[in-house]
Design brief:
Elements lengths: L4 H4 L6 H15 L7 E8 L18 E8 L9 E4 L7
Antiparallel strand pairs: 1-2, 2-3
Amino acid sequence: MEEYKDDVITCPTSPEEWTPIGEVFRDRWNVSHAMEALGSKHVVIRKPAKSSSLYYNYNGFFSVVLMAPVNEDCKFLWVDISGYESMSDA
């Protein structure tokens, strides 16, 4: 899976790559100076073995936190699925 990460999800790394994204956010969404939209969500999981209450969140179920910025077309630029415990999804 690691060998495909650059083909599946690519995050801009230079001003030349970010500029068109910012222009679309400004023109389409009427949001100046934006380069991405960020969201997060608790994803329900089964309790991992020997995890005690590590993945038990404040909503009363086991979860991991998925956080992902998206571009102007709501496509993922990057994904992080490493949060746990009572981390807020904000």
